[in-house]
Amino acid sequence: MLTIRHSDDRGLADHGWLKSRHSFSFADYYDPRHMGWGNLRVINEDRIAPGTGFGTHGHRDMEIISYVLSGNLAHKDSMGNVKGIPPGDVQRMSAGSGVRHSEFNHAEGETTHFLQIWIEPNETGVPPSYEQITVPDDQKQGRLRLVAAPSGDEGVVNIHADARLYAGLLNGAEHAELKIDPARKAYVHLIKGELKVNGEPLKTGDAALIKDEADIKLTDGKDAEVLVFDLQA
Predict the structure, then answer these.
(1) CA-to-CA dists, residue 219 to 4, 199, 201, 202, 216, angstroms
(2) FRET label pair with 190: which of 103, 172, 221, 224, CA 20 to 30 Å apart?
(3) Three-point CA angle 101, 107, 110, nearest 5°
(4) Where residue 151 falls among pLDDT bands split at 50, 70, 90?
(5) Using CB atoms within 10 A of its CB, is residue 204 exposed (0-12), middle (13-18) or buried (19+)?
(6) Cβ neighbours of residue 20 closer than 8 Å, sequence gap 6 or more
(7) b (16+ CB within 10 A) / e for 85-102
(8) In angstroms, how far is CA 81 from the centroid of its own chain?
(9) Nearest-angstrom CA–CA distance, 225 and 212
């Protein structure tokens, strides 16, 4: 079964310095029909104005992934990490027993556009940790490239969660397929462009919530950038 969640149906928060679309209930946006999907709890599409950002705040027991689309996200945390996250990088922070961090856009005249993703862990109270990788476009073009997975997979950020995250770029005749366990759930988030998921059309910001399926087939991409989640049900 596949259900489409259209971009304009997401929650919207406009704080001036921050404009955010919430795929699931978050902060002041609450919709009991959209509290998460499997162990995927948050996808916020954030746009941070130049010279602004999130001040120091805390998290516990959550796997947090940042996927930057444009601009640069400046990260600083209580573990001593001071990093810039450019487009093409995937950052993972395991909040575990507790961490504090800030995120800013220091670039003049350029908005930082990124996805903030939270996945519920399968192990709580772990020591907080940080990881960041670069995934060039040519590794995502015409295919789904694994970018986040439980410990053991190489070339990805490792998460304390029963989930896998894939990123892909599809255009024209390019297509990709992912086999999944029908007992699990999947979530397809179209970052930009157009794409068909199992024959159903998506446009920028749309998503497909999938369960009781064994295959995810991505076709008919038009400058499409997509994330696909294989999730605990």
Answers:
(1) 16, 8, 9, 11, 10
(2) 103
(3) 115
(4) confident
(5) middle
(6) 12, 13, 14, 44, 45, 46, 47
(7) bebbbbbbbbbbeebebe
(8) 21
(9) 25
